[in-house]
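Hey team,

Filing this mostly as a record. A colleague (T.K.) asked me to run one chain through the structure pipeline before their review meeting, and I want the input and output archived in the tracker in case anyone asks later how it was produced. No errors, nothing strange. Just documentation.

Input sequence:
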Amino acid sequence: MTKSAATSLAPDVRPREVWAWAMYDFANSGYTTVVITAVFNAYFVSVVARNEEWATFAWTAALAVSYLLIMLTAPLIGAWADAHAAKKRLLLVTTIGCVTFTAALALVGSGDLWLAFLLIVASNYFFGTGENLCAAFLPELARGEALGRVSGWGWSLGYLGGLLTLGLCLAYVTWAQAGGASASQFVPVTMLITATLFALASVPTFLILRERALPQPGRHDLIAESFGRVLATWRDARRHRDLARFLLCIVFYQAGIQAVVVLAAIYAEQAMGFTTRDTLLLILVVNVAAAAGAFAFGHVQDRIGHVPTLAVTLAGWIITIVLVWAAQGPELFWVAANLVGLCLGSSQSAGRALIGYLSPEAKRAECYGLWGLAVKLSAILGPVTYGLASWISRGDHRLAILTTGVYFVIGLAVLAGVDAERGHRAALAADEGG
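Output structure:
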């Protein structure tokens, strides 16, 4: 890491520790890329649910259940982590859970609907909870003016991790298909590849990343204390109205993002006629563009501001959805796929950094828990909207993607009322006031 990069870090943070933190993004991105976006979702619809009209809705329903569970527990886990300085310990628990249940997906075959449903709920629950905990380390590692840049490093390295996992799975699928293997034979192996890489790549995080927070005095009754802290944050909403408004903005624009991420492979196969190999190549390209977008827009965000950067990316999402809907052949669809990658990496990085910028230092893990709650609510709204639209329209995936694109328009409108500097001053005032 260069000297200029090192000046982006908090005074007691060394570059290798930021690398170790970013390696968790590298590790867990394989799960979302292979299980949620590229392979298992399409496998669930075509093989597990046997292409029934309700198959896409069933997939989105499984994810909705997992996200609902995360919504119910994320603020409590964040508050407990703050009070007990336990982010790293809890992150280890969630990692073991996600790795274990991802590997168990290898047991799912044709017709095993309820087994697949339960394993997706469990693995995605542990993934989402761990994602919140990992994000809560960001404000401890980066200087306030460099949150966007450091967040971008994590997201960009994360997409590289997704690329590695996806590339290995693509190589295996290509080899297996050349030998005449069916999806029910090669998809289970990709689940084992994904789980193994997640486990191995997360090791640096647990060996090097430090837990800088100190346990906070007082009673440590998990339920009562956590609920009390979360309710106090909501009661304090007037002092943090920009944070509250941005959380609402996240619910809407992330609903559109989650629909695209969760249903990309299903759309490619059902609407565009892609094969599994074609879809893997598509997601590979999307991840390359996403890594570039996260890295580049992290620097742009620190230069022009959090809100303008996010506004640009949301406008890009709106254009992208229109292109996907209009695409009748692979050429325009591939153009849209590259735009998806650029918008995905930049908007995800920008959102995570802005939450840190608007959050009081003493409640950062808790605020990231609220961020996770907003993202998970969006992950219910967007995919379920798509699933219902495709079911009601008897498989019209073009109509479904256009319907979920409305969420980006609403998100952009809500973002217009967010003043990042005013919100940051409110966060600083909260810290000074105790």
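Quick notes for T.K.: The two ends are 36 Å apart (CA to CA). Residues 95 and 130 are 7 Å apart (CA to CA).
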